[in-house]
User: Fold these one by one.
Assistant:
Number 1:
Amino acid sequence: MGSREQILGKLRAARKPFEDVPPITERKHMVKLADLSPETLRARFIDEAEKLSCYVCEAKSDQEALDYILAVLEDRKQVMSWDAKHIPIEGYQDALDKNEILVSGYNDPMVYVGVTGVDAALAATGSLVLCAGAGKHRATSLLPDIHIAVVKSDQLLPDLEAWIAQEKQTGTPAFKITSNTTIVSGPSKTADIGQELIKGAHGPRQVHIILL
Amino acid sequence: MKVDSNNFISLAEIAIDNPNLQEAITKGTNNAFDKRQLAMFADGRAHGEAMRQQAAEAKRRALRQLPELLEKAENMMTENGFIVKWAVDGNEANQMVLDIIREHGVQTVTKSKSMLTEEIGLNPVLEASDVRVVETDLGEYIIQLNNEPPSHIIAPVLHRTKAEIRDIFVRELNMTPTDDAGEMVAFARDKLRSDFVNSDMGISGGNFIIAETGSLALVMNEGNGRMCMSLPKVHVALVGIEKVIESLDDYATLTQVLPRSGTGQNMTVYTNIINGPSRPDEDGGPEIVYIILVDNGRSDIYATDYAEALACIRCGACQNACPVYRSTGGHAYGWVYGGPIGAVITPLLVGLDEASPLPYASSLCGSCKQVCPVDIDLPRMLLDLRHDLVEKGNGGRVWQLGMNAWAFGNVSPMRFELGGRVARLGQKVVGNNLPGVLGKWTKYRDFPDFAPKSFRQMWREREKGSDHNG
Amino acid sequence: MGLLERESPKGKRASLFVTCIVDMVYPGTGMSVVDILEHVGVKVDFPMEQTCCGQPAFNSGYQGDSKTVAKHFLKAFKNAEVIVTPSGSCCAMVRHEYPTLFADDPEWAAEAQRVASITWEFTEFIVDGLGITDLGLELPARQEFAFHDACHGMRLLGLGDASRTLVGNVKNADVVDLKDSDVCCGFGGLFSVKMADVSNAMLTKKMACINDSEAKTIITGDVSCMTQMNGGLSRHESSKRVRHVADVLAEGLKLAKKEVGDS
């Protein structure tokens, strides 16, 4: 008998545990959000993201967004980036070209800054949802020291439960189509050394969010 | 890892007398516990308790249909491109990993933290076969350098102070001495960078398997896990069979109570959902992803009244809340899992004979159950394990006879009173030096005097007095 | 398993379950309980057959011996309408464990349930059972008190603030903080000797909090915890002591208002 049959056999032969545990009648969301208006969600998102030590730039124009990215790059000439069509800033590729900034390979550990868009953003926890895909390399938000994420305000959802509800309406692509979905909440960190919270363990040290 | 749980009492004594250890675990557990309180009750106590119940119900519902759910998960995961394997025990799982390594010509493995791989002793098996295994979780990295086991479910190096970690880096890696934690982390980051990029295979555990969609879900903070799962060509995930959950809705609840309970975070920095190998149109990512579903004694536990122990989502909250763990740290428990959950599943997984003190390593204060995000009744299971030990005869003849005598004395008020009188007299003789095991009381504490008159004597006199007056 | 619902104990005779430790070591505490109950007009009796609830054996895994003693308890209290006890842990043994202990025993299951559903811990009996929060008591001089929350009472019985409420309403009683008041003192029954080093480590932490508190007297609802804490405090020559809530309240009886009814 194979291991699979052995294991399943034992489980099936056992008396079912928890037969009398009643179902939850009303599913609660982890975070209570009283007000779901766009303004409140936006304010909540910024607040939560900043509590996580993200830098939030509320860009009123594409140009402001581009200026911010260039400022973070300082005079570096290399950047890791999702394809321009996934970065919701008009003129993004042009700006890179004009400043002679090269979009490098997606697995280059020496590149300092990575720029991505997002697939969604979660207000309740200041989180960014990033799905892997064509031109949306997963390492862009992982290898560089600085991760810049560009978020359009219409991508903002209340919370994880709301995002999952939205996913269910479209065949749960984040759980099937893509091979990898990462929900990012702040820069990487560790408190393993004497309980001191240090940012920038192995993932990015800084997360910058440009909110359009 | 060799089981040393029968030495709990002496290991605990050593731990209590170790000032570095005491400093480290006090800081670590206080920090995590306080943060847990804030995070779980951010929207009020009632809401936090309601979410615990919702999470508890989700895990129990999943366990109720475990075989069916595992089959569903297997189908969905296979559809998603995972290669799903089943391992009856740790040996089989370890052998599977070796086979995969050979098949793909793997020379370097980068490993993300997985308690299951500690449980089955994967690393020594791999190292014996000349594969270079690099633990990449910072805590695991440090204990690997220092050749010791983890001491906490989510914070493997909780038992070491910053100074001790500094010394380990200096000794093993020639780090320039520094007391700046940021510098130490940066040092480790630099050291590991090339290992991440050049690794042939990443090994991880898994926090949840979502049967509805056939997805593997993980929660992480440092980014090393993502490195292990994204950069190498091969990813192998080892996951206990009890980790499968039913639905995305359950996932939403569980992946949010877990960080709140473990570290006080609302979300871990990286909440990952893996749906198989890299798709044809994606750049990067693993070409092949294996899931090894590991039993290793879980199906045995499933068939007993201890099935509730399988609801554990490995958050570590019980360890942070447990006053015993907070005094002894994890190593005293002698195996991979310490604290309240360890005291329950260690004997269940390795056998009561190998871990007989553990069910008694508790004052039954109930803090663990109070903080468990899935409301596991750990105190009840500790009591039942004590009963199991007694039934097996582990209690020993002397204790059994003592209990029989105690029961005999307590089914008769006359004998009860007589016993009290004898104790009162005896105390005059022995004073503060109680005999035998009771001497362990007076080692540290004074013992009160038995009262000259017992309550029932006073009651009798009171009744007599009122009879006279009445 | 949840705790069984209880009917109101108002107007019923209260049978005192004094507990073996109070009986033999702290009988004064038993008398304090009687005095307070009589102060609020409760008729108290003391079933002389009683011995122990069986907890020590149960907690050590000797369920057989525990059941033997528990059966005796059921017999001793067979005529009780209401049972009151000055111990959270003993009350929890009866309320929380007896129904399960006797679940498979057709002869005793019903009686175990009955007894479990009429048993009250002392402070919850007064506050929740009788609805009295102010006993009309007054201490002869100002005293500061802090509270240690005994584990079984707090977590298994959900005793909450009953003790603090009663003491808080005593004239001349000031309630101050005790750090980590809800952390276990390290008694845990035979744990205190079986795992003496760990028990002492926990006690040491508790004593540090006690010595730091502004209160000279710490109040608790379990004499077992009290014995552990006082055992350490006297060994280490601390001036602080732990007292049972009933004794502190009883101290306020001399100057008490005569009439106390439902509030």
Number 2:
Amino acid sequence: MKGKTLLSLAIVLSVTMTLLPILRVSAVTTNLKITPALVEDVPVGTNFDVNLEVQDVTELWSWMCVISWDPSVLSCVSVSKGPFIPDPVLWLAAPPNASAIPSLSCTSMTVPKTGYNGSGTLATIKFHVNAVGETAITITGDYLLDPAKVLITHDTINGYFKLPPPPPTSPKAKFTPAHCTMVYVCDWITLDGRASTDGWDTLPDPHSCPIEEYEWDIDFLNGTVITLHGDYIPDAFHCDGPGDVAITLTVYAPDPNPPSHPDYISVDSATHTIHQVTRPVGVIIDVYTEKGGEGPGINPDTLLQFEYPTNWADAFAPQEGVTVYAKVTYNDDPVQNKPVAFEVKDETGEAVLFRTAFTDEFGIATIFFRLIWECNKTFAGKYEVWHIYASVSVSEVEQYDIVKFRYGWLVQVDEIIAPTTAHKCEYIDIIVDINNICYTDKTVTVTVVIYDDCGVPIGFDVLADWTVQANDGLTPEFTIHIPKWAYLGTGTIYVNIYTHMPQLGGVPMCPETQKYIILSKP
Amino acid sequence: MPRDTKIYNTIKTIGERGEKPLKPKIPPLFLIILITITCVVTLTPAQASPTPALTVTTDKPAYYPKENVTTYGNLTQDGAPVPDGLVAIEVKDPKDQTLVIRTTTTGDAPPETPYVKVRSVIPCDSTGGPKDSFKRGLQAWFNLTITNYDIQPRNVCLTVNIYDSSGTPRGYDSILVPNMAGPSTSYAILCVLIPEEAALGNATVYGNVYTRWPSLGGWPYCTEESSTFLITNGGSSSFTTTTALKQKTEFSTTMQFNGNYNNTFKLPPRAAAGNYIIYVTTRYLGEEASSNTTFKVILIADFDGDGDVDGWDGIYFVDAYVDYWTPPVGEVTDPDYWRCDLDGDGDVDGWDGIAFVDAFVEYWI
């Protein structure tokens, strides 16, 4: 019995001594983790990145792991190697399936074998958000090896994704053709309402309210209205003559599981007006920019220029570069190697440039110019309207087209509204009227700072990364305290708009606006 | 109407002839319609949710500076307590300046995702970098991150309200943005001047988002977020070595579980005398409710009630003192003179005189 015990002990000791070199134990804990540890509120349908990182590692030569998640919430878009182990490496990433990257590894191929120390990114994984919900982003089957293929002990820290269900949300009707689209007479119009979003009710339990009915009202504005049904209707209708057509989509998403939250409205509708014009035949030239403006700038039926924003380019800022394209076709076929004349006119009708460019194999001639910004240039109004002309001759038939755009500070301060007098030790309300001249939303950072009579900044507020909606603007109201130590007299309110905070590289989007106030005793 | 009149006339004519009045022949169809309409009007349930009822009151009608003010009330719907409501509380002083802007719950936080949520409120430097201590008399900044979960733009009123270690509200800042695009996440840096008289030590900032000011009918979107920071006296205080960031506190709001709520704050030593208004608002299941109440702040030793402590109050005190010590000693001719018994020991003596001088000095510092 005693002999057996000794034998057992000897075996255990021997096995232990054999295994000991395989496990490397360091004083500092090495972590293999997903960063950021928590990803929140990334909207459904968008992507986000997480990193697989190693922290405080010594002599890392090779690593491998499996990354998994809940497929109902996330799906993997791509995975790419991180920089921690530099090239050359053997990078092996099995194609992601619905719920995991089944094999992910990287081994240094440096000769002689080299291990790397410290912390860094091993891989970057791009996820797509499928639906609201929560899921861990889990690391399993993980190994860290040094050049001697000895395991490096480490802790594993998983990541977590969380997207809470939305509040009660009515369905939203969205469709193409977009508002102010120009189409040719007798072209078939396809109605596509599949971009509409379902409703969401929170009572008695959060649940989706799918759209059950799509109703289209096509109003030809001549007394004729037709009604169609369906989320996608190819070749739904066409017009026999030029004119505007109002298309209204109404979506119905009744709550399948009542009672409904009082904020839930099961119906939504949207109306787009499209312009139908007679299709020109033969030579057509269409001038546009990288910010849009496709389609004729002149209505061929009325010979009037289209009103904003139909076939206009989006706004340009001072000194911004403008790439101009002119597409030349003959009976819809691109015309190559044709000289196209370009002329750009400013607000006053003065020409600012003339150019000629030849069309390429796609029938497109291209020029570039940067908007003029003289030393003392200012804008009389919110913006100027500039015109770009392009003309061409094919078979002695001359054609031209226009694209117009707004030129000005894309987002600007219209007005500062503040009381004429502010008292020390009290609060002052400052309303800033911000205008966006573009037909797309812009994200800006707004700052308001007050100086006292001696030029001392006495208070400020910042709105960072706020969206200024197109054609609408933003009118924030700031409340700022006037401190006791402010110098009495004439104070100044300065309002600035930046692309981001300056410390993050943000730059001004418009000139500073100021307003004087009287600072008086409490 | 003409038809009824005709029937009435018929009855009258027959009666005048001395014959037994005939029963009016009301057509059955008319009766059916009448009954149907009556039933529809009286029996059809209301489509909207029942309007919630919100109450507010204070534990006392009047307070002296430095006293705790406790606000409490309840939220009910159809007479039943609402255990997961949000209540905005705004207190305005007699100069119409906001003193308190907070949000509390009547139990649990609402279970559903709010339209707009305060993600965090973090004390920071002027550029948004985290910072955990600020000197008295200087400005403190707070980074308020909010998310609009709605697909529609939402009006948002962002507020921060700071409390010092004694539980006294010491300032606020706000930005009102009429159209916050949704869904989106943005942040704001708000600035609050820390008053010289703020207590040193751990302070708390409360971040909230409302549709607009509660005093103007705005209601809270979500539960409030808070963080702690340190108020230092400007020297190399030991406070600055302590990290107190992001410690969640429930400084002065006690959550209830029966539809009740309460909130306590301490009046500043130099709180303006006069009437304060407390506005409370809520929105529950799509229905809004609001209420308000007032309380009075009385300055210690402001005997004439004119909002200050001056020579006239001194004269009043002397009158009371002389009256008290005029035989028979210990009695006063005007019961109001007992207000001069500032230490509450049943007499008007030198100690009350000292208390008066203290109040006088404190007022005029």
